[in-house]
UniProtKB/TrEMBL annotation:
InterPro entries: CHAD_dom (IPR007899), CHAD_dom_sf (IPR038186). It comes from the Bacteria. It comes from Aeromonas veronii. This is CHAD domain-containing protein. Gene3D superfamilies: CHAD domain. The lineage of its organism: Bacteria, Pseudomonadati, Pseudomonadota, Gammaproteobacteria, Aeromonadales. Signal peptide: none annotated. Residues 1-254 form the CHAD domain. Transmembrane segments: none annotated.
Amino acid sequence: MDADKEGLLLTQATSWVARYQEAARALREEASEPAVHGYRIAARRLLALLALWRPLTYHPELERRLLRSVGRLSALRDAQVYAERFGKPPASTGNTHKSACRVPLLSRRLARWLAAVAQVPDARALASLYQQHLALRLDEAQSALDEPIPCVGKSASSRQQQLRRWHRLRLEIKQARYGVELLLDLGSGDPGWLSTLTHWQERLGQLQDWRQWRRRLRAEQGGTRKQTKLRQQLKEKITARLCQLDCRQAELVALKLAMLAGHNMNDMPSQVVSYSEQNVSSAKSSGG
């Protein structure tokens, strides 16, 4: 492996591992909203790093431990976001500010992983392979949006299934964003990819927040007229956002093509972007 490239890869790996362990220690001390959020980000970035090196050194149990740890914090994170938005925790949850959370430091496993990384003789192809991996994962999640939904008898159930598919795409986009950050640190990729992923993560994040808040409001006992009105407003926002997202899917198509080909987003055919803009304009004019 080129000496400079080798040094950059190893430095990056060591740095991201250290960031994860720092975030884990902070969460062990206090499960505040910033600590929970910071840990989940650090864990997902570490998962992106493990995925980058997966073709050459694969540690499945390490990845499973991280995924389980992030998953166990989902309910607490949702409750903290709800409390920040409405000024109180949802009725269905307990304390949103625990004294501490037990999350794994993974010191020994990560030390073994770093030792294995240091022994890799040639990792020059890692960045390009990982770039294609991210694009294909995005393609799989986006393609699922167009799969037929089984007839379930109620339009509300079909809508929920579609929302779950968008949620899955959000998770893939979030992970792809961390992956592109990693690539940019290595001097690969394109900043335009990160910008596109960030915008999509924000749009889908808002959609998920509205969905969660509406669900929490529905679970509240003795809902007031104000809560009923808010639920209806959230439903209208969700409907409008789904229409907007559907019309802008061409942006993700352009992103995937750029990542697969290793092109700058500005080099992609302008027709792809203009198609998206035309559909958004149509949606706005029709009230979407």
